[in-house]
Amino acid sequence: MLKYAKVAVPVPLKQEFTYSFDDGVLNVVPGIRVMVPFGRREVQGYVVDVLDSRPDVGFEIKAVSKAIDKEPLFGKREYELALWMERFYFSSRGEILDVMIPGGRRDSSFGALDFGEPVFKKDVVLTAEQSGAVETVMGAQSGLFYLFGVTGSGKTEVFLQCAERVIAQGGQVIYLVPEITLTHQLAVQVMERFKNNVAILHSGLTDSQRIAQWRRIKRSEVSLVIGARSAVFAPCENLRMIIIDEEHENSYKSGNDPRYHARQVAQKRIADCHGKLLMGSATPSLEAWHLMKDPSRMTRIDLTSRVGGGCMPKVEIADMTHEDGIFGKTLQLEMARTLGAGKQVILFLNRRGYSYYFHCRSCGYELKCPHCDVAMTYHKKTGTLKCHYCGYTQKPTRVCPVCGSLDVMYSGFGTEQVEQEVQRLFPQYRTARLDTDVVSKDRKIIQKTLDEFRAGSLDILIGTQMVAKGLNFPNVQLVGIVLADSGLLVPDFRAEERTFDLLVQVAGRSGRADSNGRVVVQTRMKDNPAIVMASKGEVEAFFDNELKLRKDLGFPPFSRMVNLVVRSPKASVARAFAESLASELRGKAAFFGFDVQVYGANECPIEKIRANFRFQVLLRSFKPSDMLSLLENVLSYTSVPSSVVLEIDVDPVDLL
Ligand code: ADP
Ligand code: ZN
Ligand code: ZN
User: Fold this and answer.
1) For atom 16 of ligand 1, which residue has the closest CA?
2) Are 567 and 574 in contact (CB under 8 A)?
3) Environment class of 65 (CB within 10 Å of its CB; exposed 0-12, middle 13-18, buried 19+)
4) Ligand 1 center to residue 310 CA distance, Å?
5) Span(s) in the chain for CATH 3.40.50.300
6) 577-592 pLDDT tens trace
7) Global pTM value
8) Alpha helices, DSSP H only, in 176-261?
9) How far is 509 from 282, CA to CA, in rounded Å?
10) Which of 3.40.50.2300, 3.40.50.2000, 3.40.1440.60, 3.20.20.20 would CATH assign to domain 2-100?
């Protein structure tokens, strides 16, 4: 018999499309993937409904080409979540299902699984603070909980014990970790404890392996799901708890459509199932910090001391204003002292490459990537200038390409130059570097380097973000932050928050097992509040202060924002569309009396990426429903020119 399927297709249209199929030939049921013709292409779509009779559509109905799955991959719950996301994030259900369900478009990050940290103790006895935390969470029926605990306070153990208790009561738990901290250690720990009862979603899985894991979850064959951002979609039928480790991490926010935040999706899922959302960090997001101020919305649980014999490190600010080299006197002395005592050093710098700023002293020319509005980075080992946004490379130059002057200079330094300087200053010690340049050649290097560092066959580890978080090396007694300032120069209202988080997290790698941990923070902005307060470990004061600033300035979390980015290879087209969009939004806001401010159109802080010119229109409102109505209204009749892409970012985490 001829039947009809309503299919969500991954295109930016908020609707389903009807296709026919012969149910004697194809077994099409709601929840499976199908191939369907769409325009001149064949695309993978998601069947959301099956009808016996022909629906009333005024055009020819095409046929389903192929049924991909034998049994459903998603149900009503996932579909309804997709519809909620469609409204919340201005994406389309087809694009959302495509990211949600394995076998579609890959969400850019899945959590790598190649870090190693085999230090793990069986049968830990919880400290009083830890068990108090578990009791608080388990004593409640439902709600939001925040484990605010200093680095090394044993948050993981609290998470795992809560998960165990929920599972013992027959519930399912989703455990989210940031991409870079889906550690081998955590995986091993979880496998040991939960045996076959766990599904680990990581980037090493093929599509069909991911689908297999997904089916196990859906059939309730596992009780614990662990993974990065997109694991928040795991189709648990009996979801009782979602755990978000390192809640402040930006990797929980998707950088591509749909630009969802795992925390927001988790909150929605937990509200729907009346379960518990348990988050934790040493440096909460301002959003979470704001929620914690109201105990009726979120329960705050403090872990104030380090477990396992560690103490918080002593932090010193080293003023670099009058120092020339990469290493000031303080850091050099501390390094010599620490290494001399047979202890290890971690050096952190959030910039890779050798140097990154080419400047002509005759005419002022600054060399930038021809496709992006960003400075090129010089990589000495490969002898190239490279753009970190689009990967464009060129040969380094010794003359100014504009005026021909030879009076040019490269300045600023990255991890590659730090490594060279360390080898010069401390030739007798063994050094290794970890950053994406090293790792992109061979991912196994991470594991190998960390193993060597742990085993003590390396003395100094240099790196970017990669060495900043989650790592637990008892023998590290000094962390040197080579330059704390780079993140502060970025034109973004979250720059200070992000710098503060990073400094506290990096500092937290020192003194994990004893009381002699030290941190040296090199800076040319020694009075900056983020640097001062991170150094003093004044976490609460920083967040309270930052929250007050945000309130005074009307920034999130007190207001909400939507960032509309218009990009096109043609600057004039992008600008014209962005301007018309802005004036349309402004006009309609005034007409309806909506409480929405419209800023722009302006060039984005990074005006050009991958040869696309970028303009932004920023919306801000203290009444989010007004903002969403306004946007819905204007988008309903706006047609985006074909050479233009419009990105809609609700609650953006950066405005670059
Ligand atoms: P956090 O996530 O809060 O920074 P971790 O969860 O990484 O801290 O814990 C730090 C270390 O302390 C880990 O090696 C962990 O195994 C250990 N640990 C956790 N709880 C206890 C405990 N109750 N007793 C002893 N060691 C513990
Ligand atoms: Zn010049
Ligand atoms: Zn580029």
Assistant:
1) 120
2) yes
3) middle
4) 10
5) 128-303, 314-353+413-551
6) 999 999 999 999 999 9
7) 0.88
8) 184-194, 207-218
9) 12
10) 3.40.1440.60
